[in-house]
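Repro:
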Amino acid sequence: MARKKHRKIHNITLREQIKKEPGLFVVYILLRTAVVGVMIAQILNKDWQNVMLCIYTLFLFTIPSFIEKNWHIDIPNTLEVIILIFIFAAEILGEIRAFYVSVPGWDTALHTITGFLSAAVGFSLVDIINRNEYTKLYLSPIYVAIAAFCFSMTIGVLWEFFEFAADMLFGLDMQKDTIVNSIHTVMLDTTASNRVVSIYGITEVSINGEDLGLGGYLDIGLIDTMKDLFVNLIGAVVFSIIGFFYIKGRGKGHFAKRFMPTLMSKKKEISEL
């Protein structure tokens, strides 16, 4: 009897949530359906690595709702939709459909978005503390903006550490290689006097005596890493500026609120029970 009552309450709550947030529900269903479709195709192809990646993606889709229910943090619909699409774009389109290789700027766009969203999350964490009536902190808008920027850049650096570790330990290529046509190095200085030797116009590189036809020198990840951190910086700076003006004129404008998680109010928590 108790189980039936619990199911009934759950179904009513789910229906109310769908009515309240139809756009989010549609995006969630479409993305899950697409992932399941891709997973079925990968099962038929017997590509078990991609099957596990699909399962991992479905798991990631549940994290926003888990955070809301268990940590009492309200994630704005705009932010949640972007997070879901970002996961799909990174894991399914980027990895399985190879958009990282076939679509120019795909990885760059995702890292820019990461910098923007990480700054929004960092901004929210500091702002929640700043506005908490039980804490004696009153931080200036510029301090909160700087803290959000630093949080975003820290997340970006930690992610690059993760990519480097994956490449070194498991032989992956998360830090994508880049073809360059010039190098500047002291390694070729025969005098051992720390003099930089520059070589320009590199069009052929042989590995173990074999020309692989790369059209230039193969940079193993450094340029990709620095580019990722630079676009992460751009995203972080953009939201930090937006957040600065949001705090400066509290209550004016709603753009920043679309990306900033907040603590649920008691009234909202009660209404969702």
